[in-house]
Amino acid sequence: MESILVLMHADETGSTLTKASLESVAAGKELAAQLGAQLAVGVIASDAAAAAAPLASLGARLLAASGEALTQARYATDAAACEAICRAAQPTLVLAPGSSRFARIMAGVAHRLGGAVDTHITALSGTANVEASRWFYRQRIEAVVTRPTRPWFLLLDAGTHAAFAGSTGTAPVEQVAIDLPTPRTTVTGFKAPQQDAQTIRPDAKLLFVAGAGWTKKQPDGQIHANQAGETILRFLRDSGASLGSSKSLVDQGGDGLPVLPFLTHMNQIGQTGATPRHPKGLSTCCHGEEPHVVGWRFINDRRAISLDPNCGWTRGKADVVYIADAFQVMAKVNELLESK
Ligand SMILES: Cc1cc2nc3c(=O)[nH]c(=O)nc-3n(C[C@H](O)[C@H](O)[C@H](O)COP(=O)(O)OP(=O)(O)OC[C@H]3O[C@@H](n4cnc5c(N)ncnc54)[C@H](O)[C@@H]3O)c2cc1C
User: Fold this and answer.
1) Which residues, 6+ apart, have CB-to-CB distance to 198 below 8 Å?
2) What share of the chain is helix, strand, coil (3-state, %, to 5)?
């Protein structure tokens, strides 16, 4: 019989579980019910008792590795903590969020336990055999993977499960002793870009896409790239949306055409770009061609603003299309957001 362990970690506060961690809990709970398997949870945090509070009503065994050394993501300490929890719980399946913190260590932890690891898992199913789904070849092929090796570690992609929402309380947490290695790295502080400079926000409710039209000649015969940049940044700041781009717009810099300086190829959505997951998407000044729209596969509600009534979006690719000037529409939207 399978037994499931969900590993999770706190955010930078050290005492609050990440959203992706709570998504893994929901996935673990669902799979345990399907398989009739036992469920345990392992929390890695500087203050694991506080972090585990939202799991009080889960009804699963709660194990924790706590301590100041686990406040920071560090290979040696995180891997030792995960290994110790796995040895205490003896699971056959280990689910964990595919965060950068866990993606870095989980192959190593699986190796120490003689197990196997798969990443970018989007769905779990099965009753007799556990089946894990993931996409290959830039999201074109969906594969269902099964493995006989145990323990089997599965890193789940964020946004593929609803987050676990139970009542908060005092959860009985078993502290697991860890033999922490002496760290060779010391974290002296953080240097992070300003909030409005970080335009890629995987947890945002909305994906805002900028197309090449923002830097094209407008009806007055002029280019308004600076105004475009200010309008987009204002909207991102006020709405918290994540910023995507068409390929044409991010390629323009190399062609010596006007650019939006805060965009890079990391923002590109599409066949040769990213396929992010957000509940909603708003495309602006973008033609909606197939190689771009294929990157919108996991956007549930799609809207577009384009001057062109014959653009790809109007031909069945968006749920709602506003045939309008995006400069005017977004200026009004910003005004409304700021008046709130
Ligand atoms: C192999 C291959 C792979 C590709 N991969 C990708 C990819 O991954 N991602 C991607 O994006 N593209 C990709 N492309 C390119 C893609 O086919 C399109 O060329 C690109 O998406 C067009 O970008 P765009 O719509 O922003 O620009 P344009 O086609 O120039 O469209 C600009 C739009 O802005 C509108 N507009 C202008 N001013 C305004 C205004 N004021 N208000 C509202 N609308 C306005 C215009 O009406 C026009 O529809 C790929 C192409 C190939 C061949």
Assistant:
1) 192
2) 35, 25, 40
In the reported structure, the alpha carbon of residue 336 is separated from the centroid of ligand 1 by a whole-number distance in angstroms of: 28
Cα angle: 285, vertex 267, 330; to 5 degrees = 35
Q: Could you report the per-residue pLDDT of 280-339, keeping only the tens digit for each?
A: 999 999 999 999 999 999 999 999 999 999 999 999 999 999 999 999 999 999 999 999
Between CA 129 and CA 35 the distance in angstroms is: 9
For the whole prediction, is pTM greater than 0.85?
A: no
What one-character-per-residue DSSP string does 110-124 give?
HHHTT-EEEEEEEEE
Distance between Cα 311 and ligand 1 center (Å): 10
Q: Does ligand 1 lie within 6 Å of residue 273's CB atom?
A: yes
* Residue 77 three-state SS: helix
In angstroms, what CA-CA distances link 193 with 187, 199, 269?
A: 17, 10, 22
Kindly give the number of the ligand 1 atom that is closest to the alpha carbon of 268.
9
What pLDDT sits at residue 189? Answer: 81
317 CB under 6 A from ligand 1? no
Q: State the amino acid at position 91 in one-letter form.
A: P
Contacts of 336 (CB under 8 A, 6+ apart): none
| Secondary structure of residue 96 in the 3-state scheme | strand
- pLDDT (average), residues 30-39: 96
CA–centroid distance, residue 220 to ligand 1 (Å): 21
Is there an atom of ligand 1 within 6 Å of 327 CB?
Answer: yes
- Residue pair 237/202 in contact (Cβ under 8 Å)? The answer is no
Other residues' Cβ atoms within 10 Å of the Cβ of residue 126: 14
Amino acid residing at 288: G
The reported pLDDT for the residue numbered 146 is 97
CA of 189 to the centre of ligand 1 (A): 41
pLDDT in tens, 187-241: 888 777 665 678 999 889 999 999 999 999 999 999 999 999 999 999 999 999 9
Side-chain-side CA neighbours of residue 124 (13 Å): 33
